[in-house]
Amino acid sequence: MASFIKDALARNLRQPRGGPVGWFVNRYVFENLNRGLEENAVKLCDISKNDTVLEVGFGPGIGIQEAYMKIKDGKGKIYGAEISKKMIQKAIQKLQPQISAGKVELVLADVINLPFESDMFDHVFHCNCYYFWDDQVACVKELRRVMKQNAKMITVLNEFSLKEVNEKGIMKYGNTDPEKYMYSLKKAGFHDVNYLKLKSERGNPFSAISARK
After folding, report:
1. How far is it, in rounded angstroms, from Cα 33 to Cα 13?
2. Of 174, 87, 187, 177, residue with least CA distance to 133
3. From CA 11, how far away is CA 16, in angstroms rounded?
4. Partners of 199 in the beta sheet?
5. What is the extent of the structural domain holding 163?
6. CB atoms closer than 10 angstroms to residue 121
7. How many angstroms separate the Cα of 5 from the Cα of each of 2, 10, 127, 195?
8. Which residues pair with 155 in a beta bridge?
9. Burial 51-64, CB ≥16 within 10 A → b, else e
10. CA 116/CA 71 separation, integer angstroms
11. What's in the keyword line of the UniProt record (predicted)?
12. Cα maximum dimension of the chain
């Protein structure tokens, strides 16, 4: 693979943009490869119909849509924070009815400076996201701030896929090391930090990191 293509892929994984490479990353990675991870992240959150939930780095909105199904008949609400304007545009198209109904709210924001009140969320989740946080401790401290006491945060990843993209040099703008992320969680004050190797209902292996405020 040509070096300029690798670099374009790496940049779009960090912050999705437009163009042919951005289209490929959205369709192949976010829409296809990440779909199962998003679904499993929502399941692990164990969301109730009256919960307030945040997804960070929601991409095209698959996880937001899945989480909405858990609260649609209750008083709950799903929020999403995303740094890519392109992804927000795509997610708004997908989730317009839910947004109009006041059950979903999407914001353009960096995880290190979230526009939410403290002690606001019952659950937080993210998928293939922490790799691109330059200051992981500061970012997870900010996430901890907006979580309610005893709230749980879930992140999901696929070890096989990460190994493959790391070997190809496509993750050069990120750090996928789960131990570094777990260290950051503990340093930020999270407890019950656990690394779980699991399988989806379809039998596909994936990993999850859980942490509680």
Report:
1. 13
2. 174
3. 7
4. 205
5. 3-212
6. 23
7. 5, 9, 24, 33
8. 126, 209
9. bbbbbbbbbbbbbb
10. 20
11. Transferase
12. 50
Integer Cα distance of 130 and 203 in angstroms? 25
- What string of pLDDT tens digits covers the 213 residues of the chain? 556 454 545 455 555 565 554 444 444 444 556 688 899 999 999 999 999 999 999 988 999 999 999 999 999 999 999 998 888 998 999 999 999 999 999 999 999 999 999 999 999 999 988 988 989 999 999 999 999 999 999 999 888 777 766 666 666 666 889 999 999 999 999 999 999 999 888 787 899 999 999
User: Whole-model pTM?
Assistant: 0.85
Contact 80, 64 (CB under 8 A): yes
Structure tokens at 91: 């997610």
